Design the sequence.
């Protein structure tokens, strides 16, 4: 009897998530066309933080392969079984990484987008040596130079990038940034794009549910969408 009550609910939810994904894909295509860009070069990362494994499954069934989580422990509990079921699923860490969680993160994630301090870079290098698995890394840039926010100041990026690559041997392939809230994000997105281009970094992770079209206009190659796919987080 439980199933009889439960199944229709699940079905509705799956349809919602699949439909939301489809509508985001259409908006990405439209934004890319406006910007005269190739939509296939813009990757959608579905941010499933605080959402269930069922929600992730629904998105995967709807064709979504890349997911983002902001906490290592939550991601581990949710995604270890999912990774077994879906070997082509890719997982991105988009929240702050504490040095005591580095090994877990190196084992679990395909991309760590929040490399933001030298100590973390050296711990990641050590961990990679030890466990023999290396994800890709993006450097988080504090593009608005906000004191409460994580990330490397734009003026420090060149030195920090050299430290991470030449110094630590990390595979740094991109930048990630979140512009200040309640401000026009466009100039910030443009600055991130210029920084990534200047340093030859192909991946530019910027844009969320509320501003991804502007991010695409400014050259984003990866948008991180939570709410517009999975609904509001409680
Ligand atoms: C939560 C989160 C997102 C997704 O935000 P939405 O507004 O729900 O799309 C994107 N990036 C980071 C770093 C986040 O923490």
Sequence:
């Amino acid at each position: 009897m439980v199933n009889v009550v439960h199944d229709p609910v699940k079905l509705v939810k799956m349809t919602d998530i699949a439909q939301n994904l489809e509508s985001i894909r259409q908006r990405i295509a439209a934004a890319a066309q406006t910007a005269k860009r190739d939509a296939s070069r813009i990757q959608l990362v579905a941010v499933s933080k605080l959402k269930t494994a069922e929600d992730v499954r629904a998105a995967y069934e709807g064709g979504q392969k890349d997911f983002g989580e902001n906490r290592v422990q939550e991601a581990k509990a949710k995604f270890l079984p999912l990774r077994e079921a879906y070997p082509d699923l890719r997982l991105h860490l988009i929240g702050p990484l504490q040095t005591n969680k580095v090994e877990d993160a190196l084992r679990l994630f395909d991309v760590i987008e929040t490399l933001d301090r030298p100590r973390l870079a050296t711990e990641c290098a050590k961990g990679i040596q030890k466990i023999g698995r290396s994800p890709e890394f993006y450097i988080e840039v504090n593009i608005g130079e906000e004191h409460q926010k994580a990330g490397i100041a734009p003026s420090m990026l060149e030195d920090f990038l050299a430290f991470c690559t030449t110094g630590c041997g990390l595979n740094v392939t991109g930048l990630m940034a979140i512009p200040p809230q309640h401000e026009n994000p466009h100039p910030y997105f443009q600055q991130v794009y210029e920084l990534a281009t200047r340093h030859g970094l192909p991946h530019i992770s910027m844009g969320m549910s509320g501003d991804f079209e502007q991010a695409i206009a400014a050259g984003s190659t990866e948008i991180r969408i939570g709410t517009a796919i999975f609904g509001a987080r409680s």
